[in-house]
Amino acid sequence: DAINDYLYDTYFKKLLPSSLIIDYHSAGIIPDNNYVHGIFVLRCNNNKLYERLKNRNYSEKKLQQIIQFENFQICLHEAREAFDESIVHELINETENDLKNNIEYLLKWIDRWPLNDSID
Description:
49% of the residues lie in helices and 8% in strands. The chain is mainly alpha-helical. It has a domain at 37-112: Rossmann fold.
C-alpha cells in the first residue's frame, strides 16, 4: 500500500507524463489508472530460471516459490487482470539473444510511444 500511495501521490496524481519505468514482480503495486501505457512481463523456462536463481544463491524454498509462480504464470495473469490486456506485453528472456531482442523491442516501443512528443 505504501508503494502504491507513493506512486500515485508522486507521479500519477500530477496528471503529467513521468516517463517512469517500474521494475517489479507484481502489478499489484501499481495504481490502476490511465497513465500506465505499457506492462512488460519477462518469462523464462523453469529449468533455465532455476539455474539462474540457484547461481544467485537463492534458498531452495525461494527457488521453489519463484518456479511455481512462473509455472502458473502468476505475474502475467496479475498484469492482465490489473490492466487492459492491450498494454501487457509478454517477453521471453531465456538467452543473451532474447535479452538483445527484448531491449530492441523496448526501444522501438518507446520510440512509438505517443507521449514522446510532449516529453522534454
